[in-house]
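Folding Problem: From Residues to Backbone Shape
Fields: amino acid sequence; protein backbone structure tokens
RECORD BEGINS BELOW THIS LINE
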Amino acid sequence: MLNIITAGSLKLMNEKRIFSHLRVPPAGGTLLFRFGAGLLVSCFLFATDASATESGALIWDTGTHSPDSLSPEAVAKREGWKELTGRNITSHGDICMANEYLVLVFRKGARGGEWYYRLGESLVKGPTLVSVGTNGDKAKALNAFTIMDSTATNALLEADVTSEAGKKMLMRFSLKKEKPFVETQPGEGTEKIRVETRSQHAIIPDLYGGDLVITAQHVQPSQIHFPSENMVLQLTDNGNAIVMCVWRSRDQQVNMSLDGTAESRAVSTTEIEYKQGKDFNVWVALIAAPAIWYQQRIAELNPVKDKRLNWKVPFCLQWQADYRRTDGLIDSWPLLIKKSSGEYEKPAGKYEGFRLWLKNRTVTSSARGHYPYPGYVENDTAYLRNSNFEGQKEIQYEAEDGVLIYPFQRIAKSPVGVFGALEILSEAPKDTPEARLPEELPVKRPERDKYPTTCTVTAEYESIFDDKQEKTKKAELLKRLEANDRFVEVIRSRIVEYMDWYKKTRAFCANEKAAKPQVAALADEFDGLLAKIQKMYEDKKLQERTPDAAKALNQKVRELIDSSEDQKDEKAKMLGRQMRTIGGSQDNSIGQFRLITKALRQRAGYRMMEAKDEVAFGFAEKMREKTAEILCTAFQQDEHPIKN
């Protein structure tokens, strides 16, 4: 991929088609489009024969009113269209808005704004944006347009719309120079934006646990109300496009509609609520490139051998692979990147990942044990496997389902103009507090999480005693034992955090069940998952395997240093085994606690989508929010932090 050409690097050639005005590199690139205060569209554009470009926000009058959607060819040629500049301009035909990144067409009589994106040498018609009023009253026809501003730096259009119930609605679209976003601001009568596009899958990316994945064929209801967690991706166009919606507030209600049966079943619309007077608008992105997302059937993957996918990675960034488990939950794995040296790079921007040995792609996890990492990318080729987890044998992947791979985040080597989900999450609400979400949401490692581990220290002192060097290296030994005392105390502090959270959350479940009998079954389900934390605490005997018990063992090692007794090396080994039992129990427990909490978080998300009323939805939503309170931080021993 080449970088996007600067606006002034080529001269405008009016005889060229409209996409000659788009800032497209010779080899293509991913572009983002934006309308005013809330609607984002992005797509990957491949090079055309156009040899010119223009900087600025442009508006054209088509000269006539078309009763039907314009063909991609007509949009490309813009034959007879007239460019409009100035303020408060009237038009004679339909309106087209464009900047370096976007073409959006408004036709009188159409239900909403229509746009097009380039895929290879072809233009493809994208989603339609439809305004929605009170009680779901949808737009029926665009009546008139007021071009409030059309300069080299800004294009602002207000659309007058008639609803199905005959009411008036207004919507503003603002397009700015070199701002690859489309933004919509609701006016009189408009309460929601309706994004009409058909997709087979939808994903709610989650930085605290596994993504929520909606596969249309698996969803029975015709409408679902899902977590309003700032973004959702719709995978469409048979792998070539992703429609992404972004919004500012969790108070903005988001619904999806589905239709069709069997193979034709699909998500057909996404409706997102505006917040009038609060500037809580909506952005919609469309990222497009050949095979921008990919699905691989899990049954074709092997647990011990990597499968080379029949998929060429479009460009270099952090790709995410979502594996569906047999329990209905999702394991989300950022694909590693294999370097020319044969080693693997750790995933970008992910603290919560795993302890990964980069030379052989082996993972050591406190909860899942040892296992090969499930996937990686080498050059433009991806490899997956169906990993087994020795520490969690019950975690199995659904053979007849598929792994979904999508662009998650830019990395240092990503071409300019290429965007993943996290970049869109920050770029869309650029001048709002939510622009910092990609920085604030990822899991953080607390400063108190200090090392060395019990395994490291016990291995060190056992070796020293074996070599009869305990007196010579006494100062070093004492320092390491002191550090290990602190480590055990720190891990215990994390256990205390989990147990305090567990007690408060379980009490919350009990109170909700008592106050709202209609959520009793749901409360029992959540409580059953929470109870696994207490059982794990008891099974690992954490009541007796405490920091005080660990300190007592370390004190015996200290006393052993200057002792004149026989077989000191054997006694050191015995003390080491006892210490590792305490340390291992603590480490494994917080890993298991995290797995349980992540499962609870996903389960609550799916129960929100399945809720039959707002009471059940609200209860599940609160439970999902509560899991973020504990999952927002992770220790190295949690399941599963990165360690180089």
User: Anything to note?
Assistant: The chain has three domains: 7-288, 294-440, 454-631. Residues 312 and 605 are 32 Å apart (CA to CA). Residues 1-54, 350-354, 640-644 have pLDDT under 50 and may be disordered. Residues 568-610 form the longest helix (43 residues).
